[in-house]
Structure formats: C-alpha cells, structure tokens
Please model this.
Amino acid sequence: MSEQDIIISIRNLWKIYRVGQVDVPALRGANLDVYRGEFVAVVGPSGSGKSTMFHIIGGLTPATSGTVIVNGRDITRMTDAERTRMRRTQVGFVFQKYNLLPTLTAYDNIAIARHIATGRADLEPEFMEVLELLGIAHRLHHKPSALSGGEQQRVAIARAIVNHPAILLADEPTGNLDSVNSQAVLRVLKDLNRRLGQTILMITHDMEVASWADRIVHMRDGQILDWETSRPVPAVRSGSETNTEEPN
Amino acid sequence: MINKLVFENLKHRPVRTALGIVAIGVQVTMMLTVVGLSEGMLEDAARRARGTGADIWVRPPGSALIGFSSAPMPEKIVEFFEKQPHVQVAVGNVVHPIGGVNTVTGVDYEKFVRMCGGLTFLEGGPFRERFDIIVDERYARQNHLRVGDKVRLLNHEWRVAGIVEPGKLARLLVRRDVLQELTGNTGKISQVLIKLDDPSRTEQVIQELKRKLPDYQIYSIEEFTSLFTVSNVPGLQAFINVIIGLSVVVGFLVVFLSLYTAVLERTREIGILKALGASRGYILSILLRETVVLVLAGSILGILGSYGSRWVVMTLVPASLTQKIVPHWWPLATAIALGGALIGASYPGWKAANQDAIEALAYE
Ligand SMILES: Nc1ncnc2c1ncn2[C@@H]1O[C@H](COP(=O)(O)OP(=O)(O)OP(=O)(O)O)[C@@H](O)[C@H]1O
Ligand SMILES: [Mg+2]
Model:
C-alpha cells in the first residue's frame, strides 16, 4: 500500500479544551493513518477522545497542535472559512442522533446538503440508485417524524454521502437503534464501502458493531492504541469478508 | 432550497409567525394611519377653501396658518376690498374654535352664497332665526343630527336649520353677527375671501392689494391651499416622526424577540447546517429571508389595516377626522418596517451565524 492511498493521516494530534481555568486534554498526541476505501471502527472508553478526533477530521473544530492531512490537505492549517468549505465536499457526518432537519422532508434533507455544497438542490439521477441501496427511495417524501429511527439514520447516511465525500465519519450511528435497525444501517455502510469504495470511520462502543469494519482501532486517554503499541487488532467477526484482505 | 426551509420554518411555528405578521401589520397600519390622517385632513381643509369659490384669501397680519385665529381685522376692511378694481365680491368671516380641531364659522350668508355658487342642501335650508346653524353632512352624520335638532356650542343652544354637502368653507356655519356678538368680536373678522370678475387678473390684484396693505397676508387660492402641507403645520412633522419612531421600535422588538426565540429553538438545526458546510452567510440569509417574508406579509396586512382604520374614522368621526389612503407611502412604510425588522434580526442572526457547530449539535 503506497503513501498515495492514505486518505487520512493524523500525526501527534492534540486537542485541549479550556473549561474555565482548567485545561481538559481530549487528545494527547494521537497518530493514525486511514487508507482510501477502508472501513475503520474506532472503539474506546467514554471520554477517550473519539468524537473529538472526528470533529477535527471533519473540520468542525480546530486542533490545538499536530497535523491532520485529509485527502492531501492539512486541515490544521486551514482558516475557519476553508474548513467550512472543506466540510461541504470532503466529509460527511452521521451522528448518533440522526440530526435531520425536522421541518424538511427526507428528500429535502438530502437535497439541502447538496445545495449547501453546490448551490443546486436537485439530486443526481444516479443518486437514486444509492437511495434504493439504502432502502429509503420510497420514503423520501416523508418528514423525519414519520420515519423510523433506522430510516432516519439511513436518510442521514444518504445526506452524508450525497456530495461524494472523501470520507464518511459516523459517530455511534447505531447507538440509538435496536438490533434489527442497527443491522440494516451497518449493512448499508458495508455496502457503501464495498460497492462504492466509500472510506468510512465509525465510532462505536459495541464490539459486535465494530466487527463489521475492516479494521478496529482502540483509543484511550486521547491516544490511538494500536498505533502506539503495535498490538494486533482484535479478531473480527469469524468468516467475515475481510479484515485480512486489502480493502479495495 | 433556502426558501423552502424558510417557508417550512415559518409554517412550523404558525402562531409565532402570525403574531409577527400581525405586529408588523399594526406597525404599518399605525404609520399609514397617521400619515393618512395628516394628509387627509390637510387636503380636506384645502378642498373646503377651494370650495368657497374665492380667488384671493386675506388673513390678518402675523396670524398662523392653521391655528385658531381670533378676529383681529375690522369688518370695515371688507368694504375697502369691494371698492378695489376687479373685485366682484368680498366676504368677511369670523372663525371660532369649539374644541378639538373643529371650528365654527360666522358668515355673511347672502354674500357667501353668491361667492360659492350656492350651498347644496341635503335637508332643511338657510338660516331663519338668530341661533340657527347649518352643518355639513359629515358633522350631521358624526353627531346624528337632523334638521330641527338642537346642538350646544359656545354655551348656547343652536337649531339645525340645514344640512349641506361638505366641501364649502366650513363644517359649521352660523350668522356672522350672532357669532361676533357671542364671542365679543363685534365689528371684527378673521378672514376675507375675495372673488374677482376675472380670475386671470388675480396676480395683478394681489400685487395692488399688497402695496396698499403691506402687513396683511394676501394669497391667491392656489398659493393658500398649497400651504396646507405637513411641514406648514407646527409640530405635525414631529408628531408623525414620533409615531413612526414608535412603530419602528415595536417592529424591531417583535422581530428581535421572534427571531431570538427561533434561533434558540433551532440551535441544533443551525449546528446541523454548519456540519453540512453551511457558511455564516448561508445561515444568516435564512434568517434574513424569514424577516423579509414577515415584513412583506405584515406590510400587506398593514395596508389592508389602513383601509380598516379609515373605515373606522370615516364611520365614527367623519367630521373631526379625515383619513386618506396614501399609496405613495406604502413602499416607504414597508421600507421603514423592513429597516426596523432587519435591525431586530441582526443580533439573533449574528448569534446564529457564529454558533459553534459542536456545541449546537450537543444542544438538547
Ligand atoms: N466542548 C468541550 N469542552 C470541554 N471539554 C470537552 C468538550 N468536548 C469534549 N470534551 C472533553 O474531552 C474529552 C473527550 O471527549 P469526547 O467527546 O471526544 O469523548 P468520546 O470518546 O467521544 O466519549 P463518548 O464515548 O462518551 O462519546 C472528555 O473528557 C470530554 O469531557
Ligand atoms: Mg463521543
């Protein structure tokens, strides 16, 4: 695997929040490489800095120090406005709470992401196939309140990938879902990764969920463990497609 | 797309939206009503002055245009005017305030009728007794008067002798000698109206009169009626400005409050938009468009409201007040309302645009 295939490269990443007079270090020198087309699960105890790392990769908040290269560009050197622009096309977010706009239909929730990025509010015809894949093509004219949690999350996934982002960041995407809906969402993520080669980073607390990924990285106290210790990644689902073979 | 979001947002909180529109409507109605009343009443006064048929209007030295003149001119001056070349008829009147903006005018009836080409009686007829009064239709309507009814004015009881069409000199006409006596102005008058045998000589006659009576205020009827403007009434412009200022403050507060609560309520949604890469400008434009929609809808309501306020005025107090519909003020009132609203939107808009995305997303 060449350097070229690295889509996210994090080096010595620090994030220190200042709460009143106290410094709260959320990331303490994290290092991570993610390859293009990989599906990576990030696991770790609460407060270990998983969400913070996602927010930095996604350009929602600046790093305190270190470098984060996303698709060839160091986002730690970007201005606020540049990060805003980067968010439109380079990353898609999926959150635990589906975070759809309640006043808009599913279709418009997806379309507004496209509008923000491109100024156009119509979905590409090819994208309808993705919506079929997500199993929400027939639910597009409903408002979020009329959709099940699993459907809402799949709409949120559609919204996250409508601009063909380099990476999809999913922060506990199944955290609010029962196992049936979780399975559906995970299958969708896996499909996107397999069929479209979508790079995905997914935070989860659930090892069962993590086992859907190609690779699992552990975080603790603001650091990535497998990088630091070179300990092998724990076993993944038995008989599963892949964590040994190369992601495509 | 933004418009859809704006529309859905407004629809999502129908009561708040409706209240915002109504408040802006009230603001616009207030402005259009006060301007409509000012212009309407001045126009009405000008129309009544023109309705006299006079070509020249003479007022005593140093008197204010609108204000309640006493009667400082000697009655004899009418004879002087009548002796001037080209003067066909001169009428001296006494004008006396009766409270509010209303006045009663004492006329030399025969001459006045000759000058104005006759009064149109809807009911009744000319004076017959000393304490007879002729009222115009609006005054009669406002006070529910019929011929033969008694009216109490200036501590005296008057009998309604006739009800005439409005538009000639005054709403209330009484006999000049009676009014002079009653108000202690015997032999004195407040104004002289002059009709010429040839109106094209008006300027020439005015020049001549001014030479002979340098202290008097002598106007052609065009000049005189053109003085009936807002700026010529002391304090009126200031009053209008105060009302407009107040209504701007109301609009400002309403929009401020409405958008402020909207921004708080939508903290999370703003965070979502930011996570999707929406710029400050994008977020701001959503709120500004909401403001513009509120103002436009409010202005339309406000314009309709001014028809409503005119109907109320013209039904209840047609004699005391005259309200005009002022279309030339519609864009201005809308612009003023928009100005106040945009100032009101600026803080909530700024707050929304600078919302931290992560905090906003964590917001419950
Ligand atoms: N905005 C903030 N201000 C101050 N401290 C913060 C902020 N966000 C996170 N932190 C702190 O940073 C640390 C890491 O938080 P983070 O949310 O990244 O953890 P996490 O691994 O995602 O945890 P969880 O599994 O509970 O979601 C925590 O100690 C948290 O309290
Ligand atoms: Mg988290």
Notes: Chain A touches chain B at residues 55, 58, 60-61, 81, 84-89, 93, 95, 99-104, 108, 111-113, 115-117, 121, 159 (CB under 8 Å). Residues 3-242 of chain A form a domain with the Rossmann fold fold (CATH 3.40.50.300). Residues A 50-51, 171 surround magnesium ion (ligand 2) (CB under 6 Å). Chain A is about 35% helix and 25% strand.
